[in-house]
């Protein structure tokens, strides 16, 4: 840059000298042209020499800037790529969690429905069992009346023919004095089995 300025200053000085010489008439026209041509060529030569250096200077200055910008752009691109990959991974995890949540909700609903169904069936079975017990109790009471009205000897023989549970149920629903009278006509083995059944049932026959 300094060389360009010096060259321009030299050119201006030469032009001033030439103008002054032409006014005074100290030099000839040919010398004036030669001097002008020579001086101009020298100034241009210096300008040409200085110009590449001047031209190279901005390029040299621009090169690190361009490299820095390229590095920054690469960093931004890498960061954007990493963020995109992380977002994709998070989206996949979110989708997987949503699918697992839907599966668990469906499983929970299935289990809840089964629990409701089992409770309903349990209630039905309990109700049926209670009805069955009520029917058995009524049946035992009705049969107990029949055995009470029969002679003790006949009632004893009839009880001998029944299964232990039925015989125990009838005996439990008979009046104590009637049951005691019939009890004398039952074999000891049958009486012991009926007593055991009554004891295990806890009076719930």
Low-pLDDT regions: 26-41, 43-63
Shape verdict: rod-shaped
- What's the average pLDDT? 76
Rounded to an integer in angstroms, the radius of gyration calculated over CA atoms is 63 Å
Helical percent range?
over 70%
The span between the termini is 124 Å
Category from helices, strands and their pairing: mainly alpha
Number of helices: 6
Element order, helices and strands? HHHHHH
Number of strands: 0
Major sheet: none
Strand % is: under 5%
Query: Could you state the oligomeric state of the chains shown?
Result: single chain
What would you say this structure looks like, in words?
By secondary structure, the chain is an all-alpha fold. Among the domains are: 86 residues; 52 residues, no CATH class. About 18% of the residues have low confidence. The longest helix is centred in the middle third of the chain and has 121 residues. Helix content is 90%, strand content 0%. The protein is built from six helices and no strands.
């Amino acid at each position: 840059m300094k060389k360009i300025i010096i060259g321009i200053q030299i050119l201006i000085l030469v032009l001033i000298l030439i103008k002054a010489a032409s006014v005074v008439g100290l030099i000839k026209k040919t010398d004036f042209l030669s001097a002008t041509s020579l001086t101009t060529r020298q100034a241009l030569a210096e300008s040409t020499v200085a110009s590449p250096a001047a031209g190279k200077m901005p390029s040299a200055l621009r090169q690190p800037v361009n490299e820095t910008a390229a590095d920054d752009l690469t960093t931004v691109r890498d960061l954007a790529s990493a963020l995109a990959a992380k977002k994709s991974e998070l989206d996949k995890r979110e989708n997987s969690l949503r699918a697992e949540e839907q599966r668990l909700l469906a499983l929970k609903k299935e289990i809840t429905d089964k629990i409701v169904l089992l409770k309903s069936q349990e209630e039905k079975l309990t109700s049926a069992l209670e009805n069955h017990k009520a029917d058995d109790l009524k049946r035992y009471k009705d049969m107990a009346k029949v055995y009470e009205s029969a002679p003790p000897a006949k009632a004893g023989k009839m009880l001998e023919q029944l299964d232990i549970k039925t015989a125990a149920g009838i005996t439990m629903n008979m009046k104590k004095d009637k049951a005691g009278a019939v009890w004398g006509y039952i074999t000891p083995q049958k009486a012991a089995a009926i007593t055991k059944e009554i004891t295990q049932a806890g009076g719930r026959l």
